[in-house]
Amino acid sequence: MHPWVGAGLEDRLHILSELGLKSIDELFASIPEAVCIDGLDLPPARDEDWIRRALGDMASANVSMDSIPCFLGAGVYRHVRPSIVDAVLSRAEFFTSYTPYQPEISQGTLQVIFEFQTLISRLTGLDVANASLYDGATALVEAVLFSHRVLHGKRDLAVVAETVHPMYRRVLDTYTEAAGIEVVVVPPGTNGRLDPNIVREAAGDQACCVAVQSPNFLGIVEDLPQLAAAAHDSGALAVEVVTEAVSLGLLTGGGSFGFDVVCGEAQSFGVAPGFGGPHLGFFACAPKHLRQMPGRLAGETVDEDGTRAFCLTLSTREQHIRRAKATSNICTNQGLMALAATVWLEAMGGSGLRELATSCFARTEELKRRITAVGDSWRIAYPQSPTFNEFLLIGPASGTELVEQLASDGVLAGVPTTDWGGAWPDGLLVAVTECNSARDLDAFVAALENLS
Amino acid sequence: MKRRAIRSEPLFFERNPRRVRRQGYLLPALDVPEVEPSEVLPPELVREPDPHFPDISEMEVVQHFHRLSQLNYAVDEGLYPLGSCTMKYNPRINEETARLPGFASLHPLQPQAQIQGALRLIWELEESLKTITGMPGATLQPAAGAHGEFTGILMIRKALATRGEKRDVVLAPDSAHGTNPATATFAGYRAQEIPSAEDGTVDLGALDRMMDETVAALMLTVPNTLGLFEHQILEIADLVHSRGGFIYMDGANLNSFVGRALPGLMGADAMHINLHKTFSTPHGGGGPGAGPVTVSEALLPHLPVPKVIRGNDGFELQWNDPASIGQMRGFYGNFLILVRALTYIWSLGAEGLRSTSDVAVLYANLVRHRLKGAYHLKFDAPSLHEVVFDDSIQTRYEVRNVDIAKRLLDYGFHPPTMSFPLVVHGALMIEPAESVAPEEVEAFCDAMLAIAKEAETDPGLVRSAPHDTPVGRVDEVRAARNLKVTWTPEDEGA
Fold it and tell me: Which helix (H) or strand (E) holds B427?
């Protein structure tokens, strides 16, 4: 017997006798013998203490990014996580419930989704947002497929900036191959920023969308108004991808510049780095395209007494109703992570979010300033281009080697660009957040000096 | 659920109406020189402060979410018999292990030497799932079941392309989850429906007629969404394989035969496993889940990258593999969900896992036994972990399945899955799962029987339910007609 199985042995016998059966095996009689087994070749049950030790040992074989000065970003960021985030996430009313199909007993989850949608809408500058997607990479995929649908499947080209996270582009390649969409990649100019004219040229008259990331993979803030115009000139939808959601605390979301979709990764809003997941994909668009939007959506309505209430809505777009004609096959999404982001954003508040983003920005500028003083063997790849909280650093060796060498000095200095390909130098992507104190910056600079 | 004295909870945006500065969280002090953003960044890109994004104190935040939580029903409150969703207990030790700093605070792009424990965990879980399914390969990348389906179908597509074949149809029974046909379309196939036979399983004759050289795969849920095991599974697999197709197995219902049978022996070429169903990871109000896929020998070369390889010097991530379908999502999967699933599998062990299936099936049959007669059972074949009744007895009194569901709320239970599978009109799909005490299952049956009686004697009471929930019956039609999916400042005046 095991504590996670509700019926003891005698209970089972009792139920069997009520069913007029002698053995549980009889209930499985419909399974052909040829596919049956006697049992699994797995170890026996383990008690909690054993589990705690075994999993604890595995966890300690990793180096937690909290344990050393850490400047890793490239799509996953370490930000403050107020203790109340996990406290709320740990409430069984939230984490042990499911998709709110029965609104009368799910108003908690539904209102949270409605607030999440509103927060994302306000930050992106677009009027509608969905209840979440798997992650930033699949959010980009959905945005491209969405654009293809909005333009009635007549434009089979997707123009994507090379400075969109290379991993996102890899995932996009996996999906677009099946969808029959061709991806054209536009490299950045020598300043690491996109040239709107080159984007316009690449889009021609066959692109369903132009997807750009800002701040881009190199940390550089793009000229969003010009890029939206370039996309629209060619009749394509303009898609902004955001991998560092905290940037939206300081930078205007693309919706305000005419972007048709703003999507990306909201892990920065209170979701643990967690070795890459679960994270939180988000997706916002203009109301006129709402019916083409993928994923779940909570809407406001009333109950029979006219009291405000919320429920899932427009499910006629979704797989359980539309089946083969659905806008996406997504069912389970990242609900609990959307809750985390909602708690986190509401704890920060509008002013707090701006203060936090400004703090990331100031620390980044300070680190850049101090690096330029270290010496000639270290330089910032694009010193003239504006960044938010990340930049590309070139040192005396390849990025991969630099990471190893600086790690031996006790600093996790960045993500190497060595193996990502792309029209940029081999170096280190360095991300700075509000969690990097002045002492972290000292340690970083000291490590560079040691290597000079 | 009893209606408690709950004030309706204002939206976050309606709080702090005077929009004064309050503090919800104390940020680390700025210990570097301040920089004015618009002096460095292009000023037109710098955001104006949003007057409608309020600041509230920490306790206001906590109270807000506490009160909202009180409006939810949850697994910890009582039976949550959503068919196909497997709402089992979410062990607390899972939550503890997933929060270990060595897992939760691990960056996916740290140097390989710093992530050995995480890679080992992935490797261990892959091995366990291979054992549980009897299949030789696995990927843990997919974020959810539907994502796993897509991964599996892409692998099949790749295998066919490698053979130089282009097939354009994917078959699925009419009882299939909606994600199956949606996935087929998403992967560039035409989805075609196979009718069910009289007994609710696949009509082998129809399959024989439809299974030709245009068909890439058959997507099959085993046991199917009626809880019926495809007793002709071997014939089905032989037929599909002999004509060059693949079997995609939807593993949503794997929880009904863990330790009793192996999908690998059934001829499955790819199967996704919903960790949030069979392996107890929390449903989280709609996710995150995880949808690992196990594969047969034929699809092994096409598994997504990166793959976790066990080498002589520890574990490594292998990114380059031209035969692979590529990468399915950012990084390596919903890793912290994987931690929970491995915790569960190791905790239960071989015998424990098998007993979860045993009791899940036993409970479903208890429900079937108790409710038969009071509710109509369209397919009366022996079923495993779930049982699908319908409302055709109650519609005589103009009581529909949705009314029964809403009335159940008054009795303190979450309703079953409604109106699915589509092959049963007015369906009530019940899956008790193994975690609760038998008395809880009995109490649910008692409530269902009482409602069946009410439908006869006082149908109005059932039709007007729920009566004891935090809000009354919600107008879903209005929500779709007058779409309002965000709060806007114009709402302030209202």
Answer: strand B427-430
